[in-house]
Specification:
Layout: H1 3-24, H2 41-54, H3 56-59, H4 73-80, H5 83-86, H6 97-111
Helix pairs in contact: 2-6, 4-6
The structure holds heme C.
Domain Cytochrome c: 44-107
Protein name: Cytochrome c domain-containing protein
InterPro entries: Cyt_c-like_dom (IPR009056), Cyt_c-like_dom_sf (IPR036909)
C-alpha cells in the first residue's frame, strides 16, 4: 500500500476514534448543547425530594413560589447554576445534572401553581 494511502487510513482511524470518544463525554463539554430542561409531573415529584434535601432548611422560612414567579424549567435550570450569584446567602447547588433538572421541573411547577 502506498505511503499516502497509509497516512490517509491512519488519519481516518484517528478521526473516527476522536468522534467516538467525544460522543461519550457529558453534554455541555466543549460547548456541545445539552437538551433544555423540561417540566413533567414525574420530574417535579423527584425535584421536590431534591428541594427537601438541599433547600428546605432555609426555604421553609423563605417561600420560594413568589421568588420563582414566571420561571419555566430552562430558566430555573439556569438559575440553579448560579445560586450564590442570586443571593450570597445561598451555597452553590450540589447534585447531579439529573437532580438539577428535576429541581428545575419542580420550581417551574411551583411557579405555575401546580407543584406536587
Ligand atoms: C443557607 C440558606 C439557603 C439555602 C440552603 C438555599 N437558599 Fe435560596 N435563598 C436564601 C436567601 C436568604 C434568599 C434571599 C431571600 C430574599 O430576601 O428574597 C434566597 C433566595 C432564593 C431565590 C430567589 C433568588 C432571586 O432571584 O431573588 C431562589 C430562586 C432560591 N433562593 C432558590 C433556592 C434553591 C432552589 C435552593 C436549593 C438548591 C436554595 N435556594 C437554597 C437562602 C438559601
Amino acid at each position: 500500500m502506498p505511503a499516502r494511502t497509509r497516512y490517509a487510513l491512519a488519519a481516518a482511524v484517528v478521526l473516527a476514534l476522536g468522534a467516538a470518544l467525544l460522543s461519550q463525554l457529558p453534554a455541555g463539554t466543549f460547548g456541545r448543547r445539552a437538551p433544555p430542561a423540561v417540566e413533567t409531573p414525574e420530574l417535579a415529584a423527584q425535584g421536590k425530594r431534591v428541594l427537601t434535601q438541599q433547600c428546605w432548611h432555609c426555604h421553609r422560612e423563605i417561600p420560594l413560589a413568589p421568588r420563582v414567579a414566571g420561571w419555566d424549567a430552562p430558566r430555573a435550570y439556569e438559575a440553579l447554576g448560579r445560586l450564590p450569584e442570586l443571593n450570597p446567602a445561598m451555597p452553590p447547588f450540589r447534585g447531579t445534572d439529573a437532580d438539577r433538572r428535576a429541581l428545575a421541573a419542580y420550581l417551574a411547577a411551583l411557579a405555575a401553581g401546580r407543584a406536587p
